[in-house]
Amino acid sequence: MADLDELPMPARQLLPKGRRGRYFFNFWKPLATLETARGCPHRCNFCSVWAFFQGRCRTKSPERVADELEMRRERYILITDDNFLLSVKRAREIGEQIAERGIKKRYSFQARSDTIVKHPEIISQWREIGLSHVFIGFESLDQEDLQAINKKNSVETNEKALQIVQDHGISVTTAFIINPDFEQSDFERLRNYIASKRITVPQFTVLTPLPGTDLFREIEKKILTRNYELYDFTHSVLPTKLDAREFYNEFASLYRTAYINSGVLKRRAFQLLAGLATRRISLTHIIRIMRAAREFADGANYMRSLKAAEQQGELG
Q1: 299-311 and 244-255 are packed helices; what angle lies between their axes, rounded to 10 degrees?
Q2: Interval 239-258: pLDDT, tens
């Protein structure tokens, strides 16, 4: 479909009753997702997005996006575009539509750091209309690694973008790719970096050669398994330099350091209590988040599924 404005409005009335009480993003609830575009103009070799959409980018008009927002009762909106700022002009016009219509929401979107650095005014504009969270793919702390994955960006630019967003009082998720070649020193360096940059919502994913990507074709012979249950970004389908148990313990330590040892949950205690008092969040919601944090921070969880695959002969 060439014109995404021709798509019918999402039939959200078909969603099951009670969904609003169970569906959340971090501490955001009630939450609605919103797609405003498909595709990405960049060509990172590990990314399946541009390959899936055959290298094309299609967008909804600012008016269509605002129309969909007006239909949403939820306070929180997670924009699911893989690169919301692929057109800064369009993002600006969407923001203008939101302001003119008096739409009051809180937003999260994903963007590249180089676009944020070139256009810091777009962060200022969206902060005024409710932008509360930005997802940025840092990927690596080393310029050589960024070049190897065809990111066409720089570590310095990543840090500048982080500072711009943080200066606006906006929460930032910084995504890092964990290379199977990581040694203990690489994990330690990343832990120290996150602490020094005051990153409170980091995300860690193991480098995964998804079928159909350039990366898959480049290193296909090194891949250990075609059991796609393990292509979940938390398991390595490539040989690890460290012993597997040590690798996953170090991987888990990244989450343990960032979310448990750092006291992030403790610092949010007042926010959580206020949410409970206003019934914006529930005790079940908090328990689910804490359980997930413990599971991500336990290296044994990753090893269980890995051992199961080995026993079934699905891992080389």
Answers
A1: 140
A2: 999 999 999 999 999 999 88
Amino acid at 268: R
pLDDT digit string (tens) for 64-110?
999 999 999 899 999 999 999 999 999 999 999 999 999 999 999 99
Q: Is the peptide bond before 239 cis (omega within 30 degrees of 0)?
A: no
Q: Residue 237's closest CA among 190, 159, 169, 305?
A: 305
Which amino acid is present at 237?
V
Q: How far apart are CA 197 and CA 212, in angstroms?
A: 35
**What residue has token string 């898959």?**
216
Is domain 4-311 in CATH 3.80.30.20, yes or no? yes
Return the H-helix or E-strand segment holding 67.
Answer: helix 62-70
Read off φ and ψ for residue 78, nearest 5 degrees.
-100, 110
pLDDT exceeds 70 at position 263: no
Instruction: Assess contact for 85 and 107: CB atoms under 8 A.
Output: no
Shortest CA distance to 35 belongs to which of 83, 97, 74, 73? 83
| Residue 274 burial (CB count, 10 A) | 11
Model confidence band, residue 267 (pLDDT cutoffs 50, 70, 90): low
